[in-house]
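Supplementary Note 3. Input sequence used for the single-chain structure prediction.
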Amino acid sequence: MTMDHEVVESCKNCSVLRNEIDKRTTQWENSNGQQLAGFLTLKQKIIGTDKLIREYQSSKVECNILTRKNEEFVHIIDQLQRDLSTHKQEYAQIYGSIELLKKANADYETKFKDLHEEAQKWKSQAEAGENFTSQLVEKVKILEKYEEEVKHTASVSRECEKMEKKLKDMKGNTFFFAAVSY
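The predicted structure, written as discrete structure tokens, is reproduced below.
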């Protein structure tokens, strides 16, 4: 009986063992399923994290590129603002020069107009002077003609006086001759 009992007991133990093994296998399968599900979840999380890290790195690279471009644009804008400031100063100087030139031009135009009017006045005075001069020349010619006539008349008058004197002298001599001859 011992042997039978042992076989029976051992069968009992085997069956308990088998039940225990089945139970543990089921637990293990459940545990493995849970572990597998956990591993799959972990795998998905790792894949998602890896994808997120890649997107982050790509975004970081893009951000770095955009940051560099932004810095370049800031530098360009600063340079353009300096250039604009310089150009504004140049513009102000040129504008001031233009205003001075406009004022000078207006002054010159006024002076030109005044000089033109004065020249016209001098021209009309010169024409009047020429007319006056030509009138004076005519009067001088007339006076010269009268002067010659006066000289001629004076010469004739002197001649007449000389002749009258001679005539008187001759009459006086004739009277003297006549008195002496009587």
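Helices lie at 2-181. The mean pLDDT is 84.
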